[in-house]
Amino acid sequence: MNPPITSMSGNFQGQYLQVNGISMYVVVEGSGPDVLLLHGFPDSHAIWREQIPALVEAGYRVIAPDLRGCGQSELSPCVADYRLQNLVQDVVGLLDVLGIERVRLVAHDWGAVIGWHFALWHHHRLDRYAALSVGHPSCYATGGFMQKLKGYYIAVFQLRGFAEWLYSVWDWALLKMLTRAPHEFPHWRAALSPPGRLTAGMNYYRANLDLILPGNRGYVNRPVMGIFSTKDIALVESQMTRSADYCKAGWRYERLDGVGHWMSSEAPERVNPLLLDFLR
User: Is a pLDDT exceeding 90 seen at residue 216?
Assistant: First the structure.
């Protein structure tokens, strides 16, 4: 194990752990019941910089990894390495390494996709789940025409090589314009500029195209809270609200009006109280 080093977010100490065959960079802060935070694309653990202190102050131990290929975690060489089964097993492996039997989970974007499947496949390791932006996988796949339209970038990402060029050319101008989150752009540029990092992020989409296909992917039997923000650029609200039909142990829905996709850093004063209330 490597010694702790300073987090890219500048406020936390992280360490490298061997998890499911990769070197995973993980921030662990605080003490108390365990809360696992899973980020999405194009983020790293730094997206949780406003939540980690609040959760620690509330008496939790917070675990915030850089997911496979992201941030400072190890790159995987093949597209197939980013199959959902591997990503979920990374979560299970991380809990095993840290000796955590059961965890409270908060996840956003691709982290939420992983979180839903963790809840479906490994419910015995889960206490409760707060899903930010992304609803149950069955609801995303049947989100209708507007959801397919908002997910146009998934098709673009399939153009290997060209997609990487398109999103990084001219100092990442297209990424900055399309995401509409200037407060996050410096973090993304720093995280995605090293060789292979942008490709790794896009490989999440390349390896899991089947997620856009309709199908009943099962029911969650742990309490779930879904949080949706009305200015989300990538998702429609119905894919979150219809998730209630798949949550058999309790469902809570919260709607943040006027907030964009990256709600955890754009509106922490609204997100944090919801998380603290639900996690209790």
Answer: no
pLDDT of amino acid 121: 97
Residue of 170, 173, 113 lying closest to 138 (CA atoms): 113
Q: Please identify which residue in the block is written with the tokens 């407060």.
A: 183
Give me the numbers of helices (H) and strands (E) for the chain, helices first please.
Answer: 12, 9
Residue whose pair of structure tokens reads 């675990």 in the numeric block: 63
Q: Are strands 22-29 and 13-19 parallel, antiparallel or unpaired?
A: antiparallel
Which spans in the chain are helix H? 51-57, 84-98, 110-121, 137-141, 144-150, 152-157, 162-179, 185-192, 197-206, 238-241, 263-266, 268-279
Question: Structural domain boundaries of the chain?
Answer: 5-279
| Cα dihedral 72→77→78→80 (10° resolution) | -40
φ/ψ of 187, rounded to 5, equals -65, -45
CA dihedral sign of residues 111, 226, 234, 269: negative
pLDDT in tens, 85-102: 999 999 999 999 999 999
Alpha carbons within 13 angstroms on the beta-carbon side of residue 228 total 19
**Cα 106 from Cα 253, distance rounded (Å):** 14
Give per-residue pLDDT as tens, 41-70: 999 999 999 999 999 999 999 999 999 999
| pTM assigned to the model | 0.94
Task: For domain 5-279, say whether CATH 1.10.10.1150 is its number.
Answer: no
